[in-house]
Fold:
Amino acid sequence: MAKKIFKNDKGRIAGYLRILANHMGLRDWTIVVSDKDPDNPDAEACAIVTYGTKYIAIRFDPDWASSSERDFQHACVHELLHAHFAPMQWAIQNAELPLGSTAYHILRASHHDALEVALDAIASEWSATLPLPYHKDEL
Ligand SMILES: [Zn+2]
Structure:
């Protein structure tokens, strides 16, 4: 039987996210593991930051426990990075009315693509310095 991250206990993700968040400048954020699946069925996870707050809800793919430790760690770091970049998304949203629908759609989609690529690159480098989702007693 393949090893499952946190022995498939989804409730333990929140504790792991808190450890990562404390290393990532997010000590004062509220981090919630959502019971919902990611909006995009192809995504391993997604993050929803509540506007104007330091509250982030993270949704994981139902098969999260079968990920490799490194892949799961990367997904967690990537999603937590969305907390730092949420104000950029809010700034883009402010352009909707003055730009109009077509220009706004292009700007938003382009910004989203660039953001996701940047977050993946940052998560790849930063993850190497952060704890994996297992502790010694779980191996
Ligand atoms: Zn993302």
Strands lie at 30-33, 45-49, 55-60. Residues 34 and 59 are 5 Å apart (CA to CA). Helices lie at 13-23, 69-93, 96-99, 101-127.
